[in-house]
UniProtKB/TrEMBL annotation, chains A, B, C, D:
PANTHER family: DEOXYNUCLEOSIDE TRIPHOSPHATE TRIPHOSPHOHYDROLASE, DEOXYNUCLEOSIDE TRIPHOSPHATE TRIPHOSPHOHYDROLASE SAMHD1. GO terms for biological process: dGTP catabolic process. This is HD domain-containing protein. CDD domains: HDc. Residues 58-176 form the HD domain.
Length: 430, 430, 430, 430
């Protein structure tokens, strides 16, 4: 079960005030080079280009998820709830701390273009020849595997999984509060202390006692507001699109044999789909930005233009459409092409729905994938929360997204005379 | 004097809530690539290794300094104070926004090792062939020079200089509040609104009306607390030392002809003392970190060890001494050398006094260098604030620093048997 | 239109930081004895018995409503919106400041029992022989009447009415923020600065520019949370019921000729329905509490018991019912009576619906009573907000209330053996 | 040792977020009528006339002191410090909760005029025939006496006394934070969590571990700022003076046989110096304000004028003098008298020094009265904090007070022509 530190270690944290470390294993994990690397991966990817304060890293967030998990468990222990398996404390804390270890630079874009998954990388780092693996093995030989299986949701105690990964887990609670703090918006604040007090371990799940329903409503409302005002912000989407295009273009020309003036090994391996854990360790946002700075000087005009746009924040503009209209989009694309714009790089249609977020999906009790939030009513009845809460039921089915068409404004302006007046008007040009 | 934007632009900011841009020149300056580069320079250098939340950039800070300056001027204008020269508004706002433009990656260390000054670089960027220069010249041909002379403190209207650079200027007010916010400490908060309300332009200076004395006390107390708890934190000092040693070592071996596996052009130019503005533009913290990652694999053991320490946060430990004792230090140094440690890299004595900070120095009225904070008493008398405030007088003369000796703990442990028992005990070893 | 103060007056305020007074009329109104009386009327009535921090007065709130109104108008003036009638500034500010002047002690209960309305009293105080009237008349002879007609919603400029009284007026914005601050809950916080920035005067109304929709959603969500967690809190309802019963009982026995040991004149006049403005001025919460303290010693057992309950916080307990069931309630009432409890005082059924609050009601554009919140879309189209916002549409129709039955627990326990087992069980007794 | 509640009770608190009650004794004490009476006594007396937000009661503060004490003890227990006597928990919590029970309305003024002491009244309420006494006796027969002796500082375990009453006790920590919150100033905030973490029970005292020195500095700086900006605010002093004069005048004329139209029993008993605990229970601020409202209509002009001034906030104005000058004051007094002003009521000289506050006084180790704050250095050395901290040493000896002369401005104006020009000028009159 690991050793307790002689003297508790304390980190000052803007969101939780302090983060307390009592276990030697946790302390040693924080000090591995793989965990320290998370300082070089931003928590919110390109969001800092929209909200300049959002420059915080996955390092801070990971400590926060650990701290919330520690608080939940400590409250379970203090209350002597019989349904909490005490021996699962350390594995839960480690999984909470390490769950984001496999994130690469600007993860969402990389994952889309190169079809990787950060959970897989997390597990590889836990299980292969790394400092993290060595620390975990001091607990027991199968400990790295146990931590990995919590993160991959195959662990045999579902209550541990649901601490770290569910619709109201420590991960989401930390990122809502933290992202709200660093962006400076005040939509994301909810009463964490109160949420923690209404959680109960019950029959292998973490549930909410009935009187806590309004606290959960408050939390889901925060989530709703954060998604629409921060996570789906169209300017952030624009920078994500530029980034995705950079990766797509670089891979495309690499495959065609383009001779890069500068191409660091991790990038080459990524293009070839044969990254090792060692390469992956090098792959942080410092490297990505350095590479983009140099690609800005490459011969390939599209790549060079995209990199300048990203580094100097000259993003694509957008227009908004309420409805899906593929015929219209085909017309626009064809007109762009005729006018000399690149149909794959100078026009991108985006719909926020296909994103790894959702406000809340009820799901079924017992569902593996996304277990719903359950209220414990009358001592022993479990009720899915949207059955009790009108407001949660209201927001559950909402599809609020609109379509956005992103494009390079000044390039389009130059060619405006080659575009049909009707389409031109759509893009706000006379 | 520049155009007003048709629609005010607004940035969400965690410290000031919102930052408002009304002038087209300001908006265009923010969008230059040189100003966007400040997103890749951290405001507090290596402090994030001590306070993990302190990951904010000079970009955010620069916007904040601009906003405070805007608020001060706007209050001067609303109150129709006759001593405020209205035609100086735009030059003041530009100087506020751009005053940190010349900061390099981890500035303080670079400046010490390479004897550069960020103010000089700021002025070069303002005056040479850059996007910033082009935007400034749209106002008038001599406008870049005017902005530069405010920043270099040679402008002929001292009131403008004192807005941007004095003992209670917009720069310090923003960084105290911002650094407190991002580190999460609450020492640095003072009542900005109240400070702004008690400032008065008066005979070419910015002074404080008498009833504002307690507000200034509160501000100086914040400064005092921040210096001792954040800016002079010994762990931050340790990381600064590592960084300085990296630069020192790299330059040293470069001069001796060491063949680097990787050495990007801006670094080479810096070693040779012939950086151009173009090179300087490349020199951001992404590049520095990428270079350090690669130097961690260099043959030179000292450089490689230092880079690993910095990147993986394996800092030097320290012991504290109340008194200066050069004889003792010489003994320690000699013993370290005998034991096989490197006397220039494995031991460093640090005293926080030689830092660009001080809590408050009264100085003389009329002094050019650091004009004191003046109270406006009985309508027309200027009194240096520490004459009136006992508490400010109390903290003015304080020398609180202690000496710290930094060293690589595990290397010293290995060699402990070669060290005199007395010295060993000093370092906490049996 | 009134004089400007030579030096702006400033009040420190926990919610808005500072409250600024520039007009002499406003300053003089604040210093009238009728406005100072509001310090002795709590903003949230009996809520301090549930949330102990909620001890703030209508004085603080009135200053807050004034300040928000001042900010809105000042933004309208700065932006030179043509649809804002500048000459209406002072009347708007006065109406904002004075709108709650007629509130009595624990208003809601008094209004219910004695069928008075605080708006009527506000207008009487504005128009009869009072210090407030004298100050208003210094502006012009018809000024008291103009201010009164804004408050009574008969003023001929609807835009002024909607500043002070609409579904998103300065009154509601202040009380949500203030009540959240003093109770200590964090549901009620929304981004006031942002709301203020999206308001526009438009064709005699105050509307919201389209991009402000999410800010309004956030505000309405806060309102929703505050209603269910603070304003409708069943413990607060319990204390309101006790209070209402005190007033009801006192009047009842007074009418029957009961000889009170102590009955101050304003109370006697209130029982007789012939209160003068002078009596009303005496009627504050200090007097009400003093009277209750003495009534606690009266011969009438019911009155004495109720007063002790209120003063020593021995409130009625409650049980909750989802559905309306008048047959069951009649049975309970009859059983209570049989057991010797008083059917009118020892049982009270409460449903939060019949309260002067609602989260949001769309209403029709142009409706006099409760004009809806309108979005200004595409420069010139007004759309009722719930047509655009799914989330607002969702909460608009919600009926979340449950029925609560309040009763004196220890009295019921004593008589439990006289009650049917089924009913007994309903009240949680064996 | 009292019983533990089956389910923890929780109060929402704006300062501490939540207040937790686990002991049945504490719960029952809170529900006594004597403790509920504290809701009708303001924490900051007349300060709400200067800072309108400061309307909070001693009820809230008492819960806060309890909560801080609970947190300190709970940290001592978690850390298993051997020097903490565990059996003292309940007596400490009760003393913390009840320490202010004996405060009357506007205590400081009443205590000065009638020479009573709230600690004495606290002990009488604990020990005589009251609900509080009955609850305490359920623990043990001598328990009321034990709690009382902690409050009177005669308890035989000094560590318990120092929790509740010392220079850094739970009382002061709560009031600084709470008064800062409700007034809205931000001087009074310090890092409570951090202070709590550095406290240690050590040899019958509570001391501070050495590394906590800066946290204590921060706390003392807050105290310094609060005293000068809130507690000693000259406008608050003005209202205290009016209040003192009301009490003084009423007693004076009562003694001379004046026939009051209204004089409630507790006031009569107070004038005669024979208050019982039952009378004292009636004596709250609701009663005081009701009585003042009626005295405003009394025949005695001085009493009537003072009461109107207090109720309608028409306070005395003041002039400030740096130096003590009794000759000058005698002249002024004599001139006032000649001009027909009352020398005892229309002129009052005030010096903030004679107040129950001080920023910090070192005192001697072992001093009974005001034990100093001690640092625990090198495991086992106790050092008085101002020996180590320059900043604390600096503020320790400061005498910042100025003399203020309070007087009724409009009365003086009327008589200005009867006053010497020199004196007139002193009072700002031509």
């Amino acid at each position: 079960m690991g050793y307790i530190l002689e003297e508790e270690k304390v980190f000052k944290d803007p969101v939780h005030k302090y983060i307390y470390v009592q276990d030697e294993t946790i302390w040693n994990l924080i000090n591995t080079k793989e965990f320290q690397r998370l300082r070089r991966i931003r928590q919110l990817g390109t969001t800092y280009l929209t909200f300049h304060g959002a420059e915080h890293s996955r390092f801070s967030h990971s400590l926060g998820v650990y701290e919330i998990t520690r608080k939940i468990i400590s409250q379970f222990e203090r209350s002597h709830y019989p349904d909490w398996p005490k021996e699962e404390k350390l594995v839960s804390l480690c999984a909470a701390l390490l769950h984001d270890l496999g994130h690469g630079p600007f993860s969402h874009s990389i994952e889309e273009v190169f079809e990787t998954h950060h959970e897989e990388w997390t597990c590889r780092i836990l299980l292969e020849d790394t400092d993290v693996n060595r620390v975990l093995r001091t607990v027991s030989d199968d400990f790295p595997q146990r931590v990995a299986s919590v993160i991959c949701k195959t662990y045999d105690k579902p209550i541990v999984i649901s601490l770290v990964s569910s619709q109201m887990d420590a991960d989401r609670m930390d990122y809502l509060l933290r992202d709200a703090y660093y962006t400076g918006v005040n939509y994301g604040t909810f009463d964490l202390d109160r949420i923690l007090r209404v959680l109960r371990p019950y029959q292998g799940r973490i549930v909410v006692k009935e009187s806590g329903m309004h606290a959960v409503e408050d939390y889901l409302m925060s989530r709703y507001q954060m998604y629409w005002q921060v996570y789906f912000h169209p300017v952030t989407r624009s920078s994500e699109i530029i980034l995705r295009q950079i990766f797509r273009r670089a891979k495309e020309i690499y495959m065609k044999g383009y001779n890069f003036q500068m191409l660091s090994k991790p990038f080459r391996m990524m293009f070839e789909g044969s990254l090792t854990v060692d390469d992956y360790f090098q792959l942080d946002e410092a490297l990505a930005q350095t590479v983009f700075m140099q690609w800005a000087e490459e011969q390939d005009e599209i790549l060079s233009d995209l990199c300048k746009r990203f580094m100097h924040r000259r993003l694509y503009k957008y227009i908004t459409m309420d409805e899906k209209d593929e015929t219209l989009w085909a017309t626009i694309r064809q007109q762009f092409e005729t006018a000399g714009l690149h149909p794959d790089y100078h026009l991108e249609i985006d719909f926020p729905f296909d994103l790894p977020y959702d406000v809340y999906r009820p799901g079924k009790i017992g569902s593996e994938e996304k277990p719903p939030i359950l209220l414990l009513c009358d001592q022993d009845q479990l009720v899915e929360i949207s059955e009790k809460s009108d407001i949660i039921r209201s927001i559950t089915g909402l599809h609020l997204g609109k379509y956005h068409l992103y494009y390079p404004e000044e390039k389009l302006s130059e060619k405006a005379h080659l575009i049909d007046p009707e389409i031109r008007k759509l893009f706000g040009m006379a």
